[in-house]
Amino acid sequence: MLFSPYTIRDVTFKNRIVMSPMCMYACDREDGTVHNWHLVHYATRAVGQVGLIIVEATAVTPQGRISARDLGIWSDEHISGLQTLTTLVHEQGAKIGIQLAHAGRKAMVEGEIIAPSPLPFDETMRTPKEMTKTDIEETIQAFQNGALRAKKAGFDVIEIHAAHGYLINEFLSPLTNKRTDEYGGTFENRYRFLSEVIEAVKKVWDGPLFVRISASDYHPDGLTVNDYVEYAKRMKTQGVDLIDVSSGAVVPAKIDVYPGYQVPFAETIRHGADIATGAVGLITSGRQAEEILRNGRADLIFIGRELLRNPYWPKTASSELGISLEAPKPYVRGW
Ligand SMILES: Cc1cc2nc3c(=O)[nH]c(=O)nc-3n(C[C@H](O)[C@H](O)[C@H](O)COP(=O)(O)O)c2cc1C
């Protein structure tokens, strides 16, 4: 199954291998624009036969960057570099998505940082400003503007970053959202910000829409995978196509990691909410990926660090599974 095509809306990925979004911190000019590094890095994985490449967390506002070296999509000036990138990747037969992000209280940039509540992540981080209604409206608008620019730049998929303790995740979790207005308190109220972001994005984007979530806060008072089954049902109703299931990083916590440690979350959400899921986290072999797909635990396999080590991982996985993978033409003699 790993090498079978997968279609969402009108977009077909040639296989189920997805390059997981990974920040490159490579914007030397600190202006959010695509640099040569990004062109080389992503196009290489397309040559390596990845089916879908998801570009790293790309900030919808300058203050929403994790670091000053992040990619950005807050200005029309970002479109042309991103367009060069999508063209390059398309030329190599892969599809390309972008992760739209706002770092919230985890932003490590100069100036004011914002979050649902004025609580720092830990003692080393700054205290964010509690977002006003205007901040909320402007940020939702920024996600919509980012989606429109992503469309203009030729992306096939948009992924909303609602995981890892960044802004949207901070609204969802009761550990980070202490608001007393309609954006905090109840389960429904904490979902409102993400719901409005999805709605705003859907107004300008009818292509495949993914949302990355942290399925567990790893904290006794935090969210669990069962909460995310309920949130995933709501996302499905709103037209989200796939939940990319990661976990943690909402509050400092010790996480027991081992091969495939997040796969049970992807499986629970897939069956509990009847929605497609992506599995990610320490998936490093073709057999492991095939097991996840064949046992109906996820629909797509996201590969992170293994693709940093080996841009030709799809080739490695295909050999392991005894499948002959077509070579990019110039590489036929070495494949
Ligand atoms: C260098 C690096 C940067 C990352 N940046 C992002 C990011 O921009 N967005 C995101 O959702 N996850 C990010 N992650 C998490 C990965 O997408 C992935 O979920 C995680 O590394 C686990 O998968 P793996 O074991 O296959 O690496 C990053 C991970 C690494 C190693």
From TrEMBL:
<dbReference type="InterPro" id="IPR044152">
    <property type="entry name" value="YqjM-like"/>
</dbReference>
<keyword id="KW-0521">NADP</keyword>
<feature type="domain" description="NADH:flavin oxidoreductase/NADH oxidase N-terminal">
    <location>
        <begin position="2"/>
        <end position="320"/>
    </location>
</feature>
<keyword id="KW-0285">Flavoprotein</keyword>
<comment type="function">
    <text>Catalyzes the reduction of the double bond of an array of alpha,beta-unsaturated aldehydes and ketones. It also reduces the nitro group of nitroester and nitroaromatic compounds. It could have a role in detoxification processes.</text>
</comment>
<feature type="binding site">
    <location>
        <position position="99"/>
    </location>
    <ligand>
        <name>FMN</name>
    </ligand>
</feature>
<dbReference type="Pfam" id="PF00724">
    <property type="entry name" value="Oxidored_FMN"/>
</dbReference>
<protein>
    <recommendedName>
        <fullName>NADPH dehydrogenase</fullName>
        <ecNumber>1.6.99.1</ecNumber>
    </recommendedName>
</protein>
<keyword id="KW-0560">Oxidoreductase</keyword>
<feature type="binding site">
    <location>
        <position position="57"/>
    </location>
    <ligand>
        <name>FMN</name>
    </ligand>
</feature>
<feature type="binding site">
    <location>
        <begin position="304"/>
        <end position="305"/>
    </location>
    <ligand>
        <name>FMN</name>
    </ligand>
</feature>
<keyword id="KW-0288">FMN</keyword>
<dbReference type="InterPro" id="IPR023663">
    <property type="entry name" value="NADPH_DH_bac"/>
</dbReference>
<dbReference type="InterPro" id="IPR013785">
    <property type="entry name" value="Aldolase_TIM"/>
</dbReference>
<dbReference type="InterPro" id="IPR001155">
    <property type="entry name" value="OxRdtase_FMN_N"/>
</dbReference>
<comment type="similarity">
    <text>Belongs to the NADH:flavin oxidoreductase/NADH oxidase family. NamA subfamily.</text>
</comment>
<feature type="binding site">
    <location>
        <position position="212"/>
    </location>
    <ligand>
        <name>FMN</name>
    </ligand>
</feature>
<keyword id="KW-0216">Detoxification</keyword>
<feature type="binding site">
    <location>
        <begin position="20"/>
        <end position="23"/>
    </location>
    <ligand>
        <name>FMN</name>
    </ligand>
</feature>
<dbReference type="GO" id="GO:0010181">
    <property type="term" value="F:FMN binding"/>
</dbReference>
<feature type="binding site">
    <location>
        <position position="25"/>
    </location>
    <ligand>
        <name>substrate</name>
    </ligand>
</feature>
<feature type="binding site">
    <location>
        <begin position="161"/>
        <end position="164"/>
    </location>
    <ligand>
        <name>substrate</name>
    </ligand>
</feature>
<dbReference type="GO" id="GO:0003959">
    <property type="term" value="F:NADPH dehydrogenase activity"/>
</dbReference>
<comment type="subunit">
    <text>Homotetramer.</text>
</comment>
<dbReference type="GO" id="GO:0009636">
    <property type="term" value="P:response to toxic substance"/>
</dbReference>
<dbReference type="GO" id="GO:0050661">
    <property type="term" value="F:NADP binding"/>
</dbReference>
